[in-house]
Amino acid sequence: MDAVTRDGATDLVVRAATPDDLPAVAAIFTHFTLRTTVTVSTEVRTPREWRDRYDAEVRDGPYHLLVAERAGSVVGYVETQRFRLKPAYDRSVELSIYVAPDEGRGGIGSALYRTLFARLAEEGRMHRAFAIVTLPNEASVAFHLAQGFLHRGTLTGAAYKFGSYLDIAYFERAL
Which site from 58, 78, 119, 150 is most exposed, i.e. has the minimal number of CB atoms within 10 Å? Predict the structure, then answer.
């Protein structure tokens, strides 16, 4: 059984995702994809795409998908994925973290990152984590800085969504 992290004050459980969690994870991602610029993704992942990624990259490694659960419902998730395609980058990961829209500012993101970073440290395979934040997003910038990330640069007008060019900030954390 995979270890879980429990936060008694908020009754929050952070654990490895299972295939049964994928619909809830997909629903959270779909909300941010279709309604916000928090992600520059413009297309949702189909249920099959979520399952294929889970089977190939999470269940069989080397990446993670953790969920935060409260009262039996998934209220957020964090995933690691390949940072870049060249093998020289294989000891770095890109992170994506999302909290259900009605659950923000409740410590869920911090609990997800805390558990993820502990697992990555225990494994000892990864050297750096990168978070890419679409700007403007003061809450995400402040959150990542509070989690020990350093702002490493901003690409101006690098993405286009909902009729606007968006800046993309790169954040880095040593593991």
Answer: 150
DSSP annotation of 97 reads E
The answer to whether the CB of 15 falls within 8 A of the CB of 69 is yes
Domains, in order of start, for the chain: 5-127 (3.40.630.30)
> Which helix (DSSP H) or strand (DSSP E) does residue 108 occupy?
helix 108-123
Backbone angles phi, psi at 48, to 5 degrees: -65, -40
129-138 in b/e form (b: 16+ CB < 10 A) is: bbbbbbbebe
What DSSP line would sit under 116-158, residue for residue?
HHHHHHHH----EEEEEEEES-HHHHHHHHHTT-EEEEEEEEE
Average pLDDT, the chain: 92
In whole angstroms, what is the distance from residue 16 CA to residue 121 CA? 16
Supply the DSSP string of 11-61, one letter for each residue: TEEEEE--GGGHHHHHHHHHHHHHH-SSS---SPPPHHHHHHHIIIIIITS
129 close to 95: Cβ distance less than 8 angstroms = yes
d(CA 132, CA 70): 27
pTM over 0.70: yes
